[in-house]
UniProtKB/TrEMBL annotation:
<keyword id="KW-0217">Developmental protein</keyword>
<feature type="domain" description="ALOG">
    <location>
        <begin position="44"/>
        <end position="171"/>
    </location>
</feature>
<dbReference type="GO" id="GO:0009416">
    <property type="term" value="P:response to light stimulus"/>
</dbReference>
<dbReference type="GO" id="GO:0003677">
    <property type="term" value="F:DNA binding"/>
</dbReference>
<keyword id="KW-0238">DNA-binding</keyword>
<keyword id="KW-0805">Transcription regulation</keyword>
<dbReference type="Pfam" id="PF04852">
    <property type="entry name" value="ALOG_dom"/>
</dbReference>
<keyword id="KW-0539">Nucleus</keyword>
<comment type="similarity">
    <text>Belongs to the plant homeotic and developmental regulators ALOG protein family.</text>
</comment>
<feature type="region of interest" description="Disordered">
    <location>
        <begin position="163"/>
        <end position="191"/>
    </location>
</feature>
<keyword id="KW-0804">Transcription</keyword>
<dbReference type="InterPro" id="IPR006936">
    <property type="entry name" value="ALOG_dom"/>
</dbReference>
<protein>
    <recommendedName>
        <fullName>ALOG domain-containing protein</fullName>
    </recommendedName>
</protein>
<dbReference type="GO" id="GO:0009299">
    <property type="term" value="P:mRNA transcription"/>
</dbReference>
<dbReference type="InterPro" id="IPR040222">
    <property type="entry name" value="ALOG"/>
</dbReference>
<dbReference type="GO" id="GO:0005634">
    <property type="term" value="C:nucleus"/>
</dbReference>
């Protein structure tokens, strides 16, 4: 909607070209009062990050001996990831299992359920961000430790072999340019 200029008249307003404004202060006041009444709801990612952070902090409190966040290292993060494996839902076949390397095994087997690599990778990403949001220095972030990165790479590679699933990065396809020189399809002969 385009605002019309004030008509030129012999009014006391010397600014003839000033656009008309329609109650912007009233509209702004009502929308700002609505925003202050209800704070924006956190995103799904923010909620998950908060839950993951609380779970990790609880793990540190229950650790024997209890650990403070400042004493936490990459080794403690690895302990936490191994602890989480007991709650996993992804079947990861052992190397001596007859279904090792099959993406869809034909029968059940006694191999353990583990956390999927993708879940662990996303978890570490959220915890790494949460650590810095809670005042941690990026260079002291235990979730970015080299040992954690190597562990995630090993889990990814082993699960890829054990489950017969490829975790290769998907490459972006180059955008296809429209071909203006293309001839239209030949018309069907009507006889």
């Amino acid at each position: 909607m385009e605002l019309a200029p004030v008509p030129e008249s012999s009014s006391s307003n010397p600014n003839y070209d000033t656009p008309i404004t329609i109650n912007t202060h009233i509209i702004g006041a009502s929308s700002s009062s609505q925003m202050s009444a209800s704070p924006p709801t956190p995103s799904r990612y923010e909620n998950q990050k908060r839950r993951d952070w609380n779970t990790f902090c609880q793990y540190l409190r229950n650790h024997r001996p209890p650990l403070s966040l400042t004493m936490c290292s990459g080794a403690h993060v690895l302990e936490f990831l191994r602890y989480l494996d007991q709650f996993g839902k992804t079947k990861v076949h052992n190397q001596n299992c007859p279904f090792f390397g099959l993406p869809n095994p034909p029968a059940p087997c006694p191999c353990p359920l583990r956390q999927a690599w993708g879940s662990l990778d996303a978890l570490i990403g959220r915890l790494r961000a949460a650590f810095e949001e809670h005042g941690g220095r990026p260079e002291a972030n235990p979730f970015g430790a080299r040992a954690v990165r190597l562990y995630l790479r090993e889990v990814r590679d082993f699960q890829a072999k054990a489950r017969g699933v490829s975790y290769e990065k998907k490459r972006k396809r180059p955008k296809q340019k429209p071909n203006n020189n293309a001839l239209p399809p030949p018309a069907a002969a009507t006889s």
